[in-house]
């Protein structure tokens, strides 16, 4: 009995036992898979954050993507979000087009209110920049930009009993408030489909600025209602032109 025990425990026997075990071969995807581990402090079993099977599944999706007609960058981007962004792009372009028409009106020689002309020209450019910002985001998320028709503005500011300056600024206020409501709707679509990236984009890049625009134009409407249609509009126009120039220089 003792002899057997000594033989089994001899160095040669241990070496023979080690040589009899075939080396384990690891190849292919299993080489990067991580097994579950036990946290030494809490004793909780910790699973890998990403199983390699998940990576393989996503790789299969990428492999089947036809880049001629599909975006490789698209991930968790709901079609409703894509459609809502395209709708907002159209809204921004329509507002820009209307502001451009107001710029052309106040720039006429028989109207001659250069401050209002500069204000609406800057507004037109800003709304177009918003449209382009949305287009860039659409492309960044793997969506496809689809441009809609732009409505032709039908304006007759000279016929307004309020005066052309006040009528134009009240129109601008209604557009800014409408745009704020549309942006809220865009944010709601992002929330509905759990798109945190899109919600953050709308909040940080568009909504904050839109709130400030509504407040600013509201103040202009209040001021124009006080000054009437004569000399007061001329003084308001000079002040507005100076503000636009200062904003452009900043």
Describe this structure in words.
This protein is mainly alpha-helical and 250 residues long. It has a domain at 79-249: Ferritin (Up-down Bundle), CATH 1.20.1260. The protein is built from eight helices and two strands. It has a two-stranded antiparallel sheet with strand order 1-2. Helix 6 runs antiparallel to helix 7 and helix 7 runs antiparallel to helix 8. This is Ferritin.
Structural Rg: 33 Å
Shape: elongated
**Number of beta-strand segments:** 2
Largest sheet: 2 strands, antiparallel
InterPro entries: Ferritin, Ferritin-like, Ferritin-like_diiron, Ferritin-like_SF, Ferritin_DPS_dom
Catalytic activity: 4 Fe(2+) + O2 + 4 H(+) = 4 Fe(3+) + 2 H2O
Pfam family, one: Ferritin
Organism: Chlamydomonas incerta
